[in-house]
Design goal:
Elements (H helix, E strand, L loop, with lengths): L12 E3 L2 E12 L1 H5 L7 E2 L6 E11 L19 E12 L2 E11 L2 H11 L3 E11 L2 E10 L6 E13 L6 H6 L3 E6 L2 E8 L5 E11 L1 H4 L10 E9 L1 E3 L2 E2 L1
Parallel strand pairs: 6-7, 6-10
Antiparallel strand pairs: 1-14, 2-4, 2-13, 3-5, 4-5, 5-6, 7-8, 8-9, 9-12, 10-11, 11-14, 11-15, 12-13
Amino acid sequence: MSRVSRFRPEGKVVMRPQWSNLLFLHWEFEPALVQKLLPAGLELDLFEGRAYVGLVPFQMAEVRPHFIPNLGKWGHFHSRFPEMNVRTYVVRDGIPGVWFFSLDAASSLAVITARLWFCLPYFKARMRVRETQGGFDYWSKRLWPAPFEATCRVRYTPSGSSRQSEPDSLEEFLVERYVLYSQRGKQLFRGRVFHEPYPIQGAKVQSLRESCLRAAGFKRPDQKPHVLFSRGVDVEVWGLEKC
């Protein structure tokens, strides 16, 4: 059964960011190892009995409240900045979504805002993205709050032609998620987003050194990750609701 619950919710949009140059790196884990790191009330979402943990570096832009129009550089809540998350896939009340173990961002304002408004585990990091010949060189080092030992350096090159993921495929399971879950105290929240389906393609990873999975409580497997790349999407974000 497809995990996609893609529809445009009713209510007020609170942000309209752009997510661009997303690298989706995923590793398979024993479900029990991932489930024990989830809060009570969330069930691990599996693909053919397998659990996945992802590392997703990308770039954010046009991060502004809904009431501020796009006025070029004068209308930005913040200029483009790198971000990266460690995530897995969960379900509650039959609604599939994403659970974030950590989200690192180069913007202090974005970190503080997301922690307060969306109850998400954001961290301020020193980050850099450099475009190379046909590819990207991405670097990140966490600054605050602790744990500090969370770094990432990945060099990669997108490959192949762009396409949409096939229904009920692993690619759809990993990227087409329109709900996030977060927690404050013992209260769980659900947040919804909407965008066009991701244009995805392959990518070749030239090098990867990271400790972000370890900081989230995982020992990264020895096998190579499942790799996807997307040029990105324009996104609408709604506020949180209790669940």
